[in-house]
Amino acid sequence: MNTEGWAVSVPRGYRVGDWRVGRPIATGSWASVYLGVRDGERATRSALKFLPTGTVTRRQLRYLREMTQREIRLHSRLRHSRLIRLRETLVVDDAENPELDGACVLVMDLAERSLADLIRAGVPVPDAPRLITEICEGIAYMHAEKWVHGDLKPNNVLMMADGSIRLADFGLTTEMDGTHGYLPPVGSTDHVPPERWGESVSERGHAVRVSADVWALGVTACQLLTGHLPFSAPTARARYVAAVEYAAGERPLTLPVSLPEGWRSWVGDCLTPDARDRPTAARQLYRARVLAGTVEASPRRTGTRMATAMAAALLVFAGASGAGMVTPSVADPFGRWLRSDSDIPPEYRALIVEAGTMCGEPGLSPALVAGILKAESDFDAKLFDVAKNEYGIARWTPSVLRYYLPTGRRDVVPTPPLSPEDSIPAVGRYLCVRLPLLAGVPGDPGLLGAAAFRSSDDVIRRENGVPERFRSFVERVRKHRAEYQP
């Protein structure tokens, strides 16, 4: 393959570190990827990603440096089976070859192809539901760790030799600072959400939120399921204008007719015009698993229906309290979720049911939430543990709780005391985000979630189960969950 015009042209057989450059694989605007071979008793193959150095302008060089730093920083902090692995980082030392001298080389796991190689116009990609689910696993993990991919598209999703996928190309990845991160004014027009260029620009770039990845997830899923982009037009610019007009309410969303009915709603939700109303990647992961047939759907009340049901139950409960003599079903409107004769304080039962039914994630239940609260604080809403910086009924650390408060309240770290009205629903939001990330770890999903609540999902995945130091806590949660289950 002729590499003339590539971002970095490297001759076959060129040596960098212990690696010998083989066939060219792919190139983009800023980097080129080649096969790398390390000879020995067992020959090792890798992907060598070359980023150029002195052949670009000073402004371009600054972008390249920042993109390289972003990619290396992410690989140093995140580990997940759905993220491509960085083996080592090298710098070319070749003064006689100024076009390569000083170039950064990322040595990465070798993939078979990108998902873009599988997409054909009007033809669904085989096994698309599984591929979408695995993309969701990677994105949900990144979001849970407070990172935004920033450039999700089929070209940046790689298929390995065993058919599994890995997210790659993290040059536009950003770590969130509060509710958003910052990216330079670049990106794939077909996969960037309409609000991206409307964000204010600062020295750090455009503000970007996790909802941008969810939009790109919907576009990518539509391509895999139908072979078409969701906005039909002959050029990328025209398709972007169509997306902007849709987001402004000037035209309807017309998805390809070949999109399966269940996935039509899934993709449409990802493409919700208002970024604040888009579902989380963790929620889309659960729905993708249901649509792919890998988990069973759980009954779930959401939005207004859930709020209405809760309000009605509270009114019935209040009326029953004043009446004195009532039937058990009326006296305890939460009896279908929590035992009526338990030690759960009555004033917290509605909040616990709300938290435990917040999503259909396997393992989440009101009894589990109650068990966690019992083990954490014995339902003490006034708990004040300054030494551990933990407060309230769920022992939240304020700087962590902020990320699990309702949208619009996450910019400010809450100040103790932490109310049950904030603390208890936040347990449900936490578990809805974290439980999908524990899929594949052996054990009871709910108890794994409890262990993650006390430590982190990263710890549980690394240990492939509940670590010894948290087993006493988890055993208490298990015992109380059984006591509270009707």
Automatic annotation (TrEMBL):
Keywords in alphabetical order: ATP-binding, Kinase, Nucleotide-binding, Transferase
InterPro entries per the UniProt record, alphabetical: Kinase-like_dom_sf, Lysozyme-like_dom_sf, NEK_Ser/Thr_kinase, Prot_kinase_dom
EC numbers: 2.7.11.1
Broad enzyme group: transferase
Cited SUPFAM superfamilies: Lysozyme-like, Protein kinase-like (PK-like)
Protein kinase domain: residues covered: 19-290
TM ranges: none
Source organism, top-level taxon: Bacteria
Name of this protein: non-specific serine/threonine protein kinase
Organism name: Streptosporangium oxazolinicum
Lineage: Bacteria, Bacillati, Actinomycetota, Actinomycetes, Streptosporangiales
